[in-house]
């Protein structure tokens, strides 16, 4: 088994599929206890206070992940730590507007955008699994192009922040503001978990935060182009994701 290093800390051996297995067991236990305590202590804290705690606790071993639907959490985190790392998964299937939003965020915000790509290009994946895997087996496609790359991209971090909100869908209704991500061996932070869409809109307006242009074109939630459609008035915000299937999550937050 191979041992990998991340910013000077020794990590456990790679798992059978080649992804980093996370910190050693003693460190995992320490991080888990820390996450569980913070989840209780910070439940009523503001988003900025939660992110300041994350920055103070983890320093360079903390990052933000962003789908570039908007840059709200990245903007908040940059206020707590200018130059904060923002991890973006380039699946190869993004709308041009999403790539444009990433480029704009990198250009105008005080963040460091880290673009993570899958091991295979779309063409290489098509050659191995057949074309349009997203139509035939969306779970496998999401695993190959999102879940697995994220695990590898987060290898050098102890904690990561996401833009999950409780009001987005029933599957996210109980999202803690800080939790232990058992699968990845990381502390997972959802600083705007208690926010509503109105809160997001107000923050965007107050601070001039960049948002994906597709949000103004009928898309309430933005994912990969082949698996995302506009939503009709009154539909759930995530109704346009994997429409026509029972799939509701890509797997990053399960």
UniProtKB/TrEMBL annotation:
Disordered as annotated region, ranges: 1-26
Record-linked CDD domains: PAPS_reductase
Lineage: Bacteria, Bacillati, Actinomycetota, Actinomycetes, Kitasatosporales
UniProt catalytic activity: [thioredoxin]-disulfide + sulfite + AMP + 2 H(+) = adenosine 5'-phosphosulfate + [thioredoxin]-dithiol
Gene source species: Streptomyces neyagawaensis
Keywords linked to the UniProt accession: Cytoplasm, Iron, Iron-sulfur, Metal-binding, Oxidoreductase
Primary gene name: cysH
Record bears the keyword Transcription: no
Name by which UniProt lists this protein: Adenosine 5'-phosphosulfate reductase
Active-site residues per Swiss-Prot or TrEMBL entry: 250 (nucleophile)
